[in-house]
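Tutorial handout. Part one gives the primary structure; part two gives the three-dimensional structure as C-alpha cells.
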Amino acid sequence: MMPILPHKNETDLFIASHPDSLTDFLKTELANNKHIYCCFPLSQFCFSFCRDLKARQVLSISFQNAHTLYPPFQRP
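Part two.
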C-alpha cells in the first residue's frame, strides 16, 4: 500500500513566468509576504522592482539562473 503524502502548502510561493507577470503580481496585495520564483534570469530583472518588493515585504525572489535575493533587496 502506498503511503499518503501530506499535501505541501505552496500558498506562499508565486511563480513568475515573465517579467510582466512579476510586474502585475507586485501591484496586488497577493504579493504580501510571499516567496517569488522567476522563470527568467536575474539579468532580466529590473532593479526598480526593489521598492515594490520591500513595500510588499516579499520574503525572497529567486531566478532561473540560481540567484536568490533577500531583503533588503539590492543589486548583487
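Part three, for discussion. The chain has a mean pLDDT of 89. Helices lie at 19-26, 50-55.
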